[in-house]
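dumping this here before i forget
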Amino acid sequence: MTQTHGERPHPAAAPLLDGKVAVVTGANRGIGRAIADVFRAHGAHVLACARAAEPVPARAADDPEHAAPGGETPIPLDLADAASIKAAIKAIRAAAPRVDILVNNAGVASGGLFQMTTLAEMRAVFEVNVFGPLALTQGVARLMARTGAGSIINLSSVAADRPDPGTLAYGASKAALARATRSLATELGGQGIRVNAIAPGVTETAMQDEMDPAARDALIGASALNTAATPQDIANVALFLASDLSSHITGQTLRVDGGIV
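structure:
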């Protein structure tokens, strides 16, 4: 491209998370994997949490993301196991002097009509989707408070606001996490910690495949864009909320659903 007299070339944009440390749960696949990769591409060192039985996949040396500015450290974590959460917090403290970002992405799906859903299943869903993330957040928020700054991002869902048949356990758990986001924002704001949530619609992940096809297609059809999101779509919003671009945003839930109105 020809440069005219008096013009100066724009400098390359600096990585949005240069030197930051980010904890990402469920980082072995789907949305979590996409978030971990985009964070690393923008200079963050990612503490990638996943169940020991589902290790973070290795990447080939010629993978473009492999040469990203940031690095990655795997951390075993099972949100259904209190001892595992405590061990993960200890491992996080040992791996990094501070934590700047926490993404509570890991979760489990559940579908079934109310009368056919046992209380045991409901408790199991809430254990992973609500109580586990909050327990992890308690430990990580203490690390953030030491530096007086941090960004916590919870993955909710449009199911939190849509009382569709068969979504009681999952939708209620995501609604609880969205409500917790607002309380955490209020309580942690004085320590310089921002807390927000992302509510995806149908997203091209393994969890999408667990949905009833008719319900999935109806939800996509209800969106203005009439298409499912990709994990990268969600990761891009997480990058915004993790970075200083959103420095005055907290207590909010951003819907990434293609325009379900």
